[in-house]
Predict the structure.
Amino acid sequence: MTKPTVLESLTQQGVSRRSFLKFCAISASMLALPVDKVAAALAAAPMPSIIWLHFQECTGCTESLTRSFDPTLESLILSRVSLDYHETLMAAAGDQAERVRTDAMKANYGKYILVVEGALPKTGFAAKGGRDAIAILNEAVAGAALVIAVGACASFGGLPKAFSPLPGGVSPSGAQGVSDLMKAGKVPNKTLINVPGCPPIPEVMSGVLVYYLVNKKAPALDSNLRPKLFYGETVHDECPREDFYEDGQFALTFDDEGARKGWCLLKLGCRGPKTHNACTKIRWNQGVSYPIRSGHGCLGCAEPDFWNRKNSSGAYASIYALVSGGGDGDCGGGDGGGDDDHDHD
Amino acid sequence: MIVDETEIPALVQALVAEIATKVETLADHGQPDTLDLRGLPLLPGDYALLKTLLGTGEVTATVSALGPTRIHETLYPGVWWVTYCNESEEVIGEIIEITVCPSLLISDNEEIRAGVARLRDTLSN
């Protein structure tokens, strides 16, 4: 059976041609591609087969995508019309669900896009249908044309990888991200795109997919395998509070005069200068706002090991000393994965 | 509006020149083009000046699909200013389309056929 094109699928869902064109125009602008190219490619591209697997996580990434109001075209493309297998959204369960997964993989072997949500714990901590999580991932990666790790957990281990700040602290489940497993040779090496965030911005998830459908290849990636298109700049780069940062005006508590006047949140633990993400550009809830604009510092959720801090100050450990060029940085995970990318100032 | 050319920043001058070239290509070869304003390093002053320079012509339209899209033809025929907004009326994209008619305004042939079927249905019901 020939798969319908992206445009045909959307039309069947009652999406008007003008809505489709508008989506193409916005996507093209976001991806720095010509509008005509995006519209022509999406009108002709067969709807991709997407297999979406969940592992050790909270399902917040799926929530991010499906709870955006309207529904948006992002959610239509990703959650309504192209998913062949998604454990949270599908009605099937048990043997029937397992069969749906193997059938979908068989029907599109070598061509499907595998989306992984959640970290992979070591053997014995997670199983589905009596099979170990890593074995299930291994099998699914083998037949994928592209693997997209969505969220901090699938990208870098996320919360499941978090460990005690006390000496000898380790993650009890030994959780790892997909790239860790590829590097260790535990799953086949395939083209992998990390789309981190806790959760990632829905438009970034769909943007990566649109880029792939239009260009038939992955976008340029940084050293953490994140698309430079969306993760090329830090959250600090276009921060609306940047003037206060430059003038040395910092909020020191969440309800002081500085906080009320919108001053820089760096001394309240904001990790914007060390965090690569598109929150300032794309924002959340269809462009409404994002943490820094709403009065809370950036938690650095798109960086590896953001759950861990080197000292007991925890999530609000200030990186002021590190950013201003001296002192002990409180930031970063125990294995230093979070701040190895110093291309920002 | 008359603006002293010496006061126009180099980037805006370059943009106006580029638009003029694209309009000539449209007139001579029927080739449409677009200019993504979000992708340009325009300062707020540059943006306002460009909008003032191009002005508003005879046609203004709003398309309601995924939030409003506001379109107007500038004082220069064939140069259309297109502003995409989301449901919260925030600007999510802005382009200048060099074309005889912006693609968003044209009725799609398949949708026309589907519309005719619906129209005939109203008679039979």
